[in-house]
TrEMBL record:
NCBIfam families: PRK14608.1. This is 4-diphosphocytidyl-2-C-methyl-D-erythritol kinase. InterPro entries: GHMP_kinase_C_dom (IPR013750), GHMP_kinase_C_sf (IPR036554), GHMP_kinase_N_dom (IPR006204), Ribosomal_Su5_D2-typ_SF (IPR020568), Ribsml_uS5_D2-typ_fold_subgr (IPR014721). The gene is ispE. Residues 154-210 form the GHMP kinase C-terminal domain. Residues 2-75 form the GHMP kinase N-terminal domain. It comes from the Bacteria. Keywords: ATP-binding, Kinase, Nucleotide-binding, Transferase. GO terms for molecular function: 4-(cytidine 5'-diphospho)-2-C-methyl-D-erythritol kinase activity; ATP binding. Pfam families: GHMP_kinases_C (PF08544), GHMP_kinases_N (PF00288).
Amino acid sequence: MIRAARLLAERVPGLKLGHFTLDKHLPVAAGIGGGSADAAAALRLLAKANGIALDDARLFEAARLAGADVPVCIASHACVMGGVGENLTMLDLPPLSCVMVNPRVAVATKDVFTALGLRAGQLRVGVDEILEAVTLPGAGASAGEWIIQLSGGVNDLEAPALRVQPVIGEVLAALRKTQGVQLARMSGSGATCFALYDDAVSADRAGQAIALTHPQWWVHAGTLS
């Protein structure tokens, strides 16, 4: 948050600053963009206090330099991200009922990418063809249509993350055993995993069941949109 504020101050002479109080309820190093969301929240607050529009190029540049996931958190909308996070395409995503689970084990993104084994600048084999072939559901598509489309994809970081923290496999197995689950994946570089359900009732019940059998884990049922 402080780094993001300093980056904006470097680009906006006379920027009015203040004090931040962070009340954080998300696990750290969890693969769900908590730190990026914190940085984006700081930038949004400073923008509001200084009359800066959210599409101001100076704000976007500060967000980009603060971290690859900060621009999409500034947008605060479901997006397809390109480049190193600076190219955003808004999605018309319907509400998706979900459960997120973290085994309260921190996973360093650097360790996961090291386990992935790519050299600097190297791409996954066939990534260009995959990106060209992706067709996302159009406006007005149902949650079911989105889940079908997402089921055809993978998280390339899941396998290396499992080598770094095998407990991720236990989380995925627990989610996939819940009633009504339609899709379960690891989020980002882990260790948080998520599952999608047909409705909020099913998601709530699944979250309660996992919290009961794994009281040491962080569990949250909610909606993605």
